[in-house]
Amino acid sequence: MQPIRLLLADDQALVRAGFAMMLSVEEDIEVVGQVTNGQEAVDFAAANPVDVILMDVQMPVLDGIRATEQIVDAGWAKVIILTTFERDDYLFDAIRAGASGFLLKNADPDDLVSAVHAVAGGHALLAPEVTVRVIERFARQLDAEKAAVGAPVPAGPQPDPAQQKLLQSLTTREREVLELVATGLSNAEIAARMFVAEATVKTHVSNLLAKVQVRDRVQAVVFAYESGLILPGEGGRET
Fold first, then answer.
1. Residues whose CB falls within 8 Å of the CB of residue 160, separated by 6 or more in sequence, listed in order
2. Is residue 183 within 8 Å of 235, Cβ to Cβ?
3. pLDDT > 70: what percent of the chain?
4. With 90 as the cut, is the pLDDT of residue 155 above it?
5. For position 114, what pLDDT does the model report?
6. Which residues does the UniProt record annotate as the domain Response regulatory (predicted)?
7. pLDDT in tens, 184-234
8. Which residues contact 51 (CB under 8 A, 6 or more apart)?
């Protein structure tokens, strides 16, 4: 099989070297390049085949969020955002820019390798514990945007009509799966909750992502809020 072609984008040489050392030992991962800022990442991805980019946020010339937006929009690679800062604005902006994953730089090496494999395989990486933060941040952002243009800010979130129309295209089962995805449950956990095989859940997830026109599970969480399927405070793992 073709190895996963990986690009490292970070302005700190020691960080790049550390990631390269950890990931190069994997037989199915090839570090094809290292760049020092977002613009170099954009230029490299435009000129070379890349599957996944590990992207720092704070970099000179062009930051990682804006670089991610350009790369994802062009379809050149999938992006995992890496940062030392556990901040909601980075997380939210990264998802809006199209990132498929978000990890802190102090993540365990095994988690980093797993993240690269997952994203390269078409999956998204959003830990359940941050799902609620994504939705609530999204709600605050929409209200702020409306206030900035002088539009009235409603007491609660107002579903997007276009998104609601897409939501109506789902079967009852697909809608149920989407609700569970939006709470941060894995396919295995959803299967256990619904008393079905995990393969059945995977089929439902694949179908619903196509119907609501989103790339991955991370975008599905945002869609679940936009469409009014779930409200801020309703997401997250039950205890």
1. 226, 227, 228
2. yes
3. 78
4. no
5. 86
6. 5-120
7. 777 888 999 999 999 999 899 989 999 998 877 777 877 887 787 876 554
8. 4, 5, 6, 77, 78, 120
Quick check: 88 pLDDT over 70?
A: no
Q: Which of 163, 142, 144 lies closest to 228 in space, CA to CA?
A: 163
pTM for this structure?
A: 0.68
Closest to 235 (Cα-Cα) out of 219, 216, 221: 221
Amino acid at 183: T
Edge to edge, the sheet with strand 29-35 lists 29-35, 4-9, 52-56, 78-83, 101-104
Stated as kind and residue range, the H or E segment containing 143 is helix 131-148
CB 223 within 8 A of CB 214: yes
Beta bridge partners of 6: 31, 52
